Amino acid sequence: MGMTPQSLAALIPPDFTLGVATAAFQIEGAVAEDGRGPSGWDAFSQQEGHIVNGDRADIACDHYHRMPEDVELLHALGVDSYRFSLSWPRIQPDGRGQVNQAGIDFYDRLLDQLLERGISPMCTLYHWDTPLPLEQAGGWLNRETAYRLADFAGLAAEAFGDRVHRWVTINEPTTVALNGYALGIHAPGYPGLFEALPAAHHMILAHGLSIQALRSANVPGELGITNVYSPVVSARGGFANDLMVELFDILHNAMFSDPVLLGRYSDFNPLLTPFLHYLTDVSPEDLAIMSQPLDFYGFNYYFPTRIAPGSGPNTGPHAIPEGVPEHMLEDSPDLPFHITGWPQYDRTAFGWPIAPEYLAVALTEMANRYPGLPPVFITEGGASFPDVVVQDALTMEPHVADVNRINYLGDHLAAALNATAPGGPAESIDLRGYYVWTLMDNFEWAAGYSQRFGLVYVDFETQQRIPKSSYNWLQEITSLRAADTSSLRR
Ligand code: PNW
């Protein structure tokens, strides 16, 4: 607790990348403009009962129209890098064939404005907005979708390859498989439970095929993936509990990192076969495609997971955000495990435990499981809090004093840097950067606008942007680093 900007700036290596991240569907709005086609998320959020308060992303942060203003916010923040995602349905409305030039033009302008300001672009190809025609053809349950994403990767390489410094193929395939195809609380809303496993396989295959497409287009940028990692801890001792810890760890972590980093799916206790035998359609050729060498490995960390055996509805903090309507909880499927609370930790507004020491655990587990790990970027980390706008007594300007977010970010960044420093438990990891989720409050998926993760407050009525205290705090760190680098250069 209580990392000052000075103490943090002193801890951060000079060549370390500090960035902020966003995703197209969460910020852009303009969902029916300039030739953008609908995505599975548009359809899902139009159906009643899926999103808190019935919120929709039709306008979101109106970033599509306010992009230059938002780039100025990034510039004034002083971050080294900006991670954003391409809207697949804005660029290729049908998910195949015909390209929408207006979509290309938008990202052309974004990239140019970033580079003019010395901000390094990290571009995510797929952050959950599947073009609706592909979703209607089965989405990620259909192997075909993997080949369509690879085509999209080739198209993106041709249009933007000269200017993107780092490419992320897919953001958190875990969350898409689990929330979208197993629990049905994200698009496309299938509650298929373990029958969702082929969706996971097809996404990792899509990752590998996209890497091939980017490599064969000879893009100069570095290539990687973003997985989310949550250390899994047993709520109590006992065989059943250990087995369920193993199951959840496979479903949430290993299933997605093993094929990418080791070229195989995890061995597991044969007692878990009833749950995992749905993973079919896996060939040695697939595994070779999925495990091509990467230039970096991205992972997101938010919180650890505490597992108890059971068959009750999944009411824990992990999958079902607080504030989700009761009927969704009732509809939630029975699972052989459940995610339990952590009484010893404070929680974010989402109910997620605040446990920076588990980011060190995550890095240590990664280091032990994957000795040949390429350089690592933490591609997301952040927290939602009940931010309140007040008028500053002196300046009369609106202001958000989010000390809790400053503490969250400072403690997590320090935990990651200390764990990977020489002598730290994850010292073998070459940690290259940390991206704050997120630049500004936005459409937080099933939670709509009810959860604010931003460094910048967004008034969704007026679209006014109000930098929070956490924005000023990060700005102070980046300016201390800039001053220090120039003195080194002298
Ligand atoms: C990530 N979980 O999603 C996504 O990459 C972002 O788009 C999202 O806004 C952000 O984190 C905050 O939610 C997650 O339950 C969704 O473990 C769910 C979980 C973690 C991350």
UniProtKB/TrEMBL annotation:
It holds the Pfam family Glyco_hydro_1. Substrate binds at residues 26, 127, 171, 302, 437, 444-445. It is an enzyme of class 3 (hydrolase). Its EC number is 3.2.1.21. GO terms for cellular component: cytosol. GO terms for molecular function: beta-glucosidase activity. The keyword Nucleotidyltransferase does not apply. One of its GO terms (biological process) is cellulose catabolic process. It catalyses: Hydrolysis of terminal, non-reducing beta-D-glucosyl residues with release of beta-D-glucose. The active site is at residues 172, 380. Keywords: Carbohydrate metabolism, Cellulose degradation, Glycosidase, Hydrolase, Polysaccharide degradation. Belongs to the glycosyl hydrolase 1 family. This is Beta-glucosidase. It comes from Crystallibacter crystallopoietes.
